Amino acid sequence: MTSDDSAPDGGTTGEEQGGASDDGGVALDPWGSATVGDYRNLFEEFGIEEFDEIIDRVPDPHYLMRRGVIFGHRGYDAVADAMRKGDEVAALSGFMPTGDPHIGHKLVFDELIYHQEHGADTYGLIADLEAHSARGMTWAEIDEHARDYLLSLIALGFDAEAGTLYRQSTNRELQDLAFELGAKARFAEFEGIYGFDGGTSVSHMQSVVTQMADILYPQLVDGPKPTVIPVGPDQDPHVRFSRDIAARMRYFRVTEAFASFELTDAQRRVVAVAYDDREAYAADPETPRCEEAAEYLRNARGDDASDVGAADEVVDATIGKLANGGKEPLRPRLRFLDRNATDGAFEALIDAVPGEKRVFEAHVDAFEMDRAAAEELAREVELDHDGYGFVAPSSIYHRFMTGLTGGKMSSSDPASHISLLDDPEDGYDKVKAATTGGRETAEKQRELGGRADECPVYELYAYLLAGDDDEFAEAVYEECVGGERLCGDCKEQAAGLMREFLAEHQEKREEAEELLADLDVDLDVDASRRGVAPSAEE
Ligand code: TRP
Ligand code: SF4
Question: What's residue 303's pLDDT?
């Protein structure tokens, strides 16, 4: 663990972090600094998908989506499709109560509220175990901040009666789930993904399995469903890990197969080519034999005209397996592999497979099912036999806001951010004092235009102040780069809007007080906790 836990916003060196790049460009470190050098690297290096490519499938996309603030995702198409169809979906995010909620957190609050308004079962949680174990916050501090996060979330429009708010430390079912998930997580993965080592505290590790449980919690409460986790890209390691663990918890894995032996995904594609071409080589095209397909692939490889579309090693390995298969017929089928099923569940699955089937020691092959039906059956049997049946959780990622002083927005530097609790006049002043993308003189600005793309003030408009009004956001941009807008007036306008926003938000927070008091969220954990402050990790 390189991040020094006494310095929440301390830089991260990256080298030891999972998935860090050699050039030091991107390191996705949940406990490091919230900055990203180049968002494009996240697609290439980490396999985060581009939000743009699926925005058309999203019903009534939020302005943060429309303006590219939400830039990436993992598996969000499943959530978007389900939302559009009116199927069940869930949304969940968590907040570490280490300081005041600020305008960066507002992005996540808004994302949760958007999903709630579009029918999602929505959860907001206070990551108090993480704040205590990874940031060394005392329980008294945590209580105070927890309250502030929840008030702001409600004030911004979260419906606390329809949704769920909880804290990690008092949620017993969550802890039970964390314990179960821990059985499928290895210390070596903690080392690889998070850079944990012998100096990492066990409580910090426990907070990680707790986060895995958070991410899967909506499915525990109310059954398997697509779930979106709106977060910053620094949380992507957690999302990936939770997707892995969700799969590892499944009783069965459904794959496609052609014969009794196992194939990798790449090998399966090669066999599919051979199977599709069976008319060309099989003595009886109804029953192509493995050895015939092997022979066909051997010939095809020597012949440039028919490319099987795979690397030589893959084709070689496939030919080897097919040759071993001898006279066994090639027949497409769906295979249920037993990963964690109890004997009872495996028996029940075998009984439930319709039509022709073949039973092996640790798998069963079904010849008359399609993929979707097979997946559904696997999940049904699992749920009937005390399994969770988790669907892989999805995520969406937003850009980090630039600090008002030009660097990163940091909770430890009050001038760099605007807290949702800032006095409206202070908010006004901070915007007036912000760095801009303007030119040295008004004259140059008129001539060359401002640099809205590098301007923290423009970001304030796009991320917050313009709200849902795209025309307004665009007008600011166009006027800026066209040289019609000068920074003084522009900041004056932004500062005024910020003052208004804060005043209104704080009024709504007051109204939310009563609502919060009626909810059964324990805001006085400190009273029932003892212990010592966690020591900084070595
Ligand atoms: N680790 C997150 C943070 O640092 C907080 C968190 C805890 C969280 N559990 C979560 C975020 C589940 C999303 C989903 O802010
Ligand atoms: Fe930024 Fe406004 Fe100046 Fe443009 S005019 S650079 S948006 S402050």
Answer: 67
- In this structure, the residue with its CA closest to atom 3 of ligand 2 is 487
The rounded distance, in Å, linking the Cα atoms of 477 and 488 is 15
Q: Please give the structure tokens belonging to residue 147.
A: 């309250």
Residue 130 Cβ < 6 Å to ligand 1 = yes
Residue 180: how many other CB atoms lie within 10 Å: 17
E strands along 314-372, which residues?
A: 333-338, 357-359, 363-366
| Ligand 2 binding pocket includes 458 (Cβ within 6 Å) | yes
Of all protein residues, the one whose alpha carbon is nearest to atom 5 of ligand 2 is 487
Instruction: Starting from the CA of residue 394, give the closest ligand.
Output: 1
- Which CATH topology does 2-251+392-398 take? Rossmann fold (3.40.50)
pLDDT digits (tens, 9 = 90+) for 230-263: 999 999 999 999 999 999 999 999 999 999 999 9
Contacts for 493 with CB less than 8 Å, ≥ 6 apart: none
CA–CA separation, 502 and 498 (whole Å): 6
Maximum pairwise Cα distance, the chain: 85
> Which of ligand 2's atoms lies nearest the C-alpha of 487?
3
Tell me which residue has its CA closest to atom 8 in ligand 2. Answer: 487
Q: Output 441-447 pairs: Cβ under 8 A, ≥24 positions apart.
A: 442/486, 445/483, 445/486, 445/487, 446/483, 446/484, 446/486, 447/483
Q: What is the pLDDT of residues 78-133, one digit of tens each?
A: 999 999 999 999 999 999 999 999 999 999 999 999 999 999 999 999 999 999 99
| Domain boundaries along the sequence of the chain | 2-251+392-398, 253-384, 414-517
> Would you say how long the chain is, in residues?
538
Ligand sitting nearest the alpha carbon of 449 = 2
Least confidently predicted of 53-67, 288-302, 336-350, 351-365? 288-302
**pLDDT-derived band of residue 290, with 50, 70 and 90 as boundaries?**
very high
- Residues 489, 134: contact at Cβ < 8 Å? no
Residue in 480, 489, 491 to alter for ligand 2 test, most ligand atoms within 8 A of Cβ: 480
Give tens-digit pLDDT for 483-495.
999 999 999 999 9
Q: Which fold has domain 414-517?
A: Tyrosyl-Transfer RNA Synthetase (1.10.240)
The pLDDT of residue 408 is: 85
Q: Residue 124: CB within 6 Å of ligand 1?
A: no
What is the phi/psi pair of residue 272, to 5°?
-60, -40
Q: Which atom of ligand 1 is nearest to the CA of 31?
A: 4
99 C-beta closer than 6 A to ligand 1: no
Residue minimizing CA distance to atom 8 of ligand 1:
94
Residue nearest to atom 10 of ligand 1 (CA): 94
What's the confidence (pLDDT) of residue 34? 64
Is residue 214 within 6 Å of ligand 1 at its C-beta? Answer: yes
